[in-house]
Amino acid sequence: MKTPLLNPNSFLFSYTMIINSFLKNITKYLDLGKEIYLSPIYGCKFCGYEGMLHRHGYYSRNVITKYSIHRISILRVKCPSCGKTHAVLPSFLIPYYQYSLEFIFECLYLSFVMKDSYSKIVNLFNSLNPDLSFKASNISSFKKRMNENNSIVNSFFAGFDSLYYDMDYPKVSSIIEKIKVFPKDIFDFNSTFFKMMPKYFFSKV
Ligand SMILES: [Zn+2]
């Protein structure tokens, strides 16, 4: 019997999500709809089963991007070995956040790296997307989560490529810069992080 890759008691929801690298672009995702899920999904992080997971319906959820709010379908799959169901998220999303990865990351970048004020960031996002009521409290909750994730992201970089690794405890701003220059892009960072680490990026620590 295979050893489970995750401790089932560690965090109730962390293993019910799969970050898939199939699509990074929300526009393409909206064009294709459920057809996006034609290719099979393999591998259950919960029990270590490596085969194909069975389709188990869809649910819809909101995605808030810089310019608009969308409703998209998310595939659920079920592991034939352990019976656990997983939601298959495209890599432009972070589990349990309605804001897209790009939105959250840009907000973090503006605050931690560019040192923009909260009011400047709030005004920028609210002017780009008229349907939005983005608040300073959203920024502080993103920043709090990023602070909590900082050392785990640093250890991801250690496993990914020692060139990125900072032996000293790195500042959040330098970790954010490293994510920004990740090979390909931040979406690839998101799916690679999910593949290599026990929890997804930006998870509750
Ligand atoms: Zn399983």
Q: What is the topological layout?
A:
Elements: E1 17-20, H1 26-32, E2 54-64, E3 69-78, E4 85-90, H2 101-113, H3 118-128, H4 136-160, H5 172-180, H6 186-196
Parallel strand pairs: 1-4
Antiparallel strand pairs: 2-3, 3-4
Bound molecules: zinc ion (ZN).
The site of zinc ion has 8 residues, from loops.
Provide structural commentary.
There is one protein chain. The chain is of the alpha+beta class. The protein has 2 domains: 77 residues, no CATH class; 84 residues, no CATH class. 37% of the residues lie in helices and 15% in strands. The protein has 6 helices and 4 strands; from the N terminus they run E-H-E-E-E-H-H-H-H-H. Strands 1-4-3-2 form a 4-stranded mixed sheet. A hairpin with a 4-residue loop joins strand 2 and strand 3. The longest helix has 25 residues. The chain is globular, with a radius of gyration of 17 Å. The N terminus is likely disordered. The structure holds zinc ion. Zinc ion binds next to loops.
